[in-house]
């Protein structure tokens, strides 16, 4: 048997360090067994998936030094490798399950589903809806079908109180209650598959033998095991890797830690160091050394060396490790070249100079004008915002609203950024100049800079969002109570501008 593993990210946002972590361990496991590693794009969320996000995933994984044997950009015998290009396949398998009585057509409305869940909750039962909760009388089904009512396809699941045993490569046998497993939607009303159907069908058709994924998928394993049984297929061996965590032990999230690979690239971390650090997340070399390269990790890789304790993603520790790589593995000439490639290449300079040139009288004026573009976290304090009009709470509100709009943007260019920020200012009933004043300081560290929207385009989405988050924290942050109040107010604003 040839070992085949995969990573299957969704192109719905910035490429996540968690994706790189899972990709690294899948690559290492495949290579350790002389196997193959695949990249599959799970783009069934057609509203949020974008070609730009897909390309960012490909570019960031390659920047880290992770290469795949089959994928959307390199091809292979088991393509296509984008789920959006495999729609007919999923529909056929879903209908096959319906014909065999292993799935059913469900016409329940969202209001009915809410009422059913509330009834189960009131009765002290789990919120998992079973086929017996959802199936309608034949006459009602016929009426809704004749009326052309929308429907989904759901899988049949056990309704007893038994247990499902899942074999895990790291955890042994895991027992999960069937009564917590709902009649999962397999095919949505728009004909798109859910993750559960597409994942099982694709893994089988692509010959995946081992699935290494995050432990958040453990509770979904019974559904996947049942689908494999329904189809009569052998289930790949499962390995649920521990989740990356913030220093406070909470699940890694962008609210507490930068999570985008592009952020670390923009900050000037070396790809070798970031990959090294991800390799240390729950795994260790036999000699326990902290600094090692990908070839060294591949040479020593053993999945059983993974620790189940939640690995802490600590940016300060990453900085320390990155410093080791810079001092120990780069001579002066190599470091000079890395600096040029990172920020001082001709393409970057040509983007910056049209903005800086307007304010320059001597060449020495350039460095102070452009310093914020090649900086990481800016040394701003609460005093940096002293000249801003309004109360601190109003400044934080504006920055938080700006951050939420920036996080929702699908494409990143100056016009789109301007449209979003101007729309916010109009909705808040303030002059654009006044609304942008604190944003200027958050982005550039000063209001005496060139256009803030041009600056944000040059910095890119990851660094721009990180600086807005930092400014909010500098001003005292947002408490849980205040966050709920702000979220309610934000939801009442007009929709985001197009772009």
UniProtKB/TrEMBL annotation:
Its main location: cytoplasm. GO terms for cellular component: cytosol. Signal peptide: none annotated. One of its GO terms (biological process) is glutamyl-tRNA aminoacylation. Residues 334-472 form the Aminoacyl-tRNA synthetase class I anticodon-binding domain. It catalyses: tRNA(Glu) + L-glutamate + ATP = L-glutamyl-tRNA(Glu) + AMP + diphosphate. One of its GO terms (molecular function) is zinc ion binding. A motif ('HIGH' region) lies at residues 9-19. The keyword Ligase applies. Coiled coil: none annotated. ATP binds at residue 254. Belongs to the class-I aminoacyl-tRNA synthetase family. Glutamate--tRNA ligase type 1 subfamily. NCBIfam families: gltX_bact (TIGR00464). This is Glutamate--tRNA ligase. It comes from Parahaliea aestuarii. The lineage of its organism: Bacteria, Pseudomonadati, Pseudomonadota, Gammaproteobacteria, Cellvibrionales.
């Amino acid at each position: 048997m040839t070992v085949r593993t995969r990573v299957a990210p969704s192109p719905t946002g910035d490429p996540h360090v968690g994706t790189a972590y899972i990709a690294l361990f899948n690559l290492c496991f495949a290579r350790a067994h002389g196997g193959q590693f695949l990249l599959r794009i799970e783009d069934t969320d057609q509203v949020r998936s974008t070609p730009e996000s897909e390309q960012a995933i490909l570019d960031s994984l390659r920047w880290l030094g992770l290469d795949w044997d089959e994928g959307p950009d390199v091809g292979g015998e088991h393509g296509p490798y984008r789920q959006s290009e495999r729609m007919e396949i999923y529909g056929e398998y879903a209908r096959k399950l319906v014909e065999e009585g292993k799935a059913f057509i469900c016409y329940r409305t969202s209001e009915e589903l809410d009422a059913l869940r509330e009834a189960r909750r009131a009765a002290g039962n789990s919120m998992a809806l079973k086929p017996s909760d959802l199936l309608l009388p034949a006459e009602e089904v016929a009426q809704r079908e004749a009326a052309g009512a929308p429907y989904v396809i759901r899988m049949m699941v056990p309704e007893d109180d038994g247990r499902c045993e899942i074999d895990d490569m790291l955890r042994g046998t895991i027992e999960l209650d069937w009564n917590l497993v709902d009649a999962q939607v397999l095919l949505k009303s728009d004909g798109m598959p859910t993750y559960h159907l597409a994942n099982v069908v694709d893994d089988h058709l692509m010959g995946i033998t081992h699935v290494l994924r995050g432990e958040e998928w453990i509770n979904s394993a019974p559904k996947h095991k049942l689908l494999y049984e329904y189809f009569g297929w052998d289930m790949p061996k499962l390995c649920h890797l521990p989740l990356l965590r913030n220093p406070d032990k909470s699940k890694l999230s962008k609210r507490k830690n930068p999570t985008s690979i592009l952020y670390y690239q923009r900050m000037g971390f070396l790809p070798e160091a970031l990959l090294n650090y991800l390799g240390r997340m729950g795994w260790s070399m036999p000699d326990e050394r902290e600094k090692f390269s990908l070839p060294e990790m591949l040479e020593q890789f053993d999945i059983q060396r993974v620790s189940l304790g939640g690995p802490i993603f600590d940016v300060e520790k990453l900085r320390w490790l990155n410093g080791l790589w810079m001092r120990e593995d780069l001579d002066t000439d190599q470091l000079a070249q890395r600096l040029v490639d990172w920020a001082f290449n001709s393409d970057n300079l040509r983007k910056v100079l049209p903005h800086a040139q307007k304010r320059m009288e001597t060449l020495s004026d350039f460095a102070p004008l452009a310093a914020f573009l090649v900086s990481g976290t800016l040394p701003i304090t609460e005093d940096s915002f002293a000249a801003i009009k309004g109360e601190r709470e109003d400044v934080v509100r504006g920055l938080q609203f700006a951050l939420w709009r920036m996080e929702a943007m699908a494409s990143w260019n100056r016009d789109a950024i301007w449209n979003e920020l101007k729309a916010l200012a109009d909705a808040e009933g303030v002059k654009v100049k006044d609304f942008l004043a604190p944003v200027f300081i958050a982005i550039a560290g000063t209001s005496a800079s060139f256009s803030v929207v041009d600056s944000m385009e040059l910095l890119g989405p990851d660094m721009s969002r990180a600086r807005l988050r930092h400014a909010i924290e500098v001003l005292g942050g947002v408490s849980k109570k205040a966050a709920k109040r702000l979220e309610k107010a934000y939801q009442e604003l007009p929709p985001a501008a197009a772009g």
